[in-house]
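[step 3/7] fold_predict: job queued, chain A
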Amino acid sequence: MSEAEFSEFVAARWPRLVRSGVLLGCSEHEAQDLAQNTLARCFHSWHKVQAADDVDAYVYRILTNTLKSSRKRRWWGETPTEALPDDGAETDHSSPIALSHGVRRALLALPIEQRAVVVLRYFADLSEQQTADALGIPNGTVKSRASRALAQLAADADLTELAES
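[step 4/7] structure written:
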C-alpha cells in the first residue's frame, strides 16, 4: 500500500463518512472523530479493506461497528473547559438549515436499526446488498427496515411542513 493511494481513498470517502456519522446521530465533531477512527482502522488493516469484495460496504461496516462500540461506553460527551470558545457564529434560520435540522430530528426519532439502514442506503448511496453487508443483516431485513423507516418519515408532520415551505 502506498501512502498516496490511501490519501486518495481518504479524500474521496471523508465527506460521505462524516455526513453518515451526523445522520446516524453524532454531532459534527463526533462524526469527524468517528470518520477519523474508521479510517484509522482501515489504515491498520488496509490489506483486508482492499481484499474485500465491496470496499465501501466494508468501510461502512467498520464505521457502524465503531459507532456501536463508542456508544457502549458509559459516557459520551464533551470535556468541560474553563471558558467556552467564541467562534462568532450566529444561528442562521434560512430554509435549507431548517430543512437539514428537520431531517436530522426525524432521523433521530427512528430506531437505530432503521436509521442505520436509511443513512447507508439513501445518504451514503449504498445498494441494498452493500447495506446488508455493512450492517451484517440479510437483504430482506434491509428492505423491511427501509420500508418501515420511510413510512415513518413520510408521516412526520414536521418534515411535511418543511417540505411545503
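[step 5/7] annotate
The chain has two domains: 3-71, 95-164.
Residues 3-23 form the longest helix (21 residues).
exit 0
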